Amino acid sequence: MKPMKCPHCGGTYIERHEDFRFDDHVCGTLVLPKAAFDKCDSCGDVLLHPGTGDRMSALIEKTIHHRLGRLPVGDFIMAKQAATLLDISVQAFNKHRRIQRGFIHQVELDGHKCYHRGSVLRFKKTSDGRFPLASATQGKSAHTRTVSWGRGQAGNSPRRAPPVHLSV
Ligand SMILES: [Zn+2]
User: Fold this and answer.
1) b/e string for 113-131 if b means 16 or more Cβ within 10 A?
2) What is the distance between the alpha carbons of residues 97 and 37, in angstroms, rounded to a whole number?
3) How far is the centre of ligand 1, averaged over its atoms, from the C-alpha of 104 (Å)?
């Protein structure tokens, strides 16, 4: 099989199956174990395999859920209160696409969706209520890559067209 050339530097993509570190703007640095991707042997450019992007999205979602769960329950309010803060009706709040897509940090408590109060106020100001939920021990690493598409952004597709030489 002919190896794919890197459009940036002319290097060659090598298929990798290893832990993949990446930066999410909400969660900070995350590590996806045994990720499938191709990496340029020269400049380090990465092409995610189909499915890897979905696994990253799932990891981000799980991490957000876990870290929200550590915040005080008292920080969360019901949809009705959140709608009042935003000066919209509960119906409009529940139907709001950006809210449905996770632009306000939300958890489920006793079967009810609850919204982080600070996140609601932030959403009111900037239309994006997500604030960083870094882990307590996290430090910035120079070796991580920035992945700009996160939960709530357009689709869950990989950031580039999948490579043609997939192993199935
Ligand atoms: Zn390259």
Assistant:
1) ebbbbebbebbeeeeebbe
2) 31
3) 37
pLDDT tens by residue, 118-134: 999 999 999 999 999 98
Q: What's the gap in Å between 4 CA and the centre of ligand 1?
A: 10
Separation of CA 10 and ligand 1 centre (Å): 6
Q: What confidence tens digit (pLDDT) does each residue in 17-74 have?
A: 999 999 999 999 999 999 999 999 999 999 999 899 999 999 999 999 999 999 999 9
Positive or negative torsion for Cα 80, 85, 89, 91: negative
Q: How far is CA 107 from each of CA 11, 21, 45, 129, 133, rounded to the nearest angstrom? A: 45, 26, 35, 14, 14
Read off the tokens for 74: 């008292």
Domains detected in the chain: 1-68 (3.10.20.860), 73-126 (no CATH)
Determine the distance separating the centroid of ligand 1 and the alpha carbon of 47, expressed in angstroms.
11
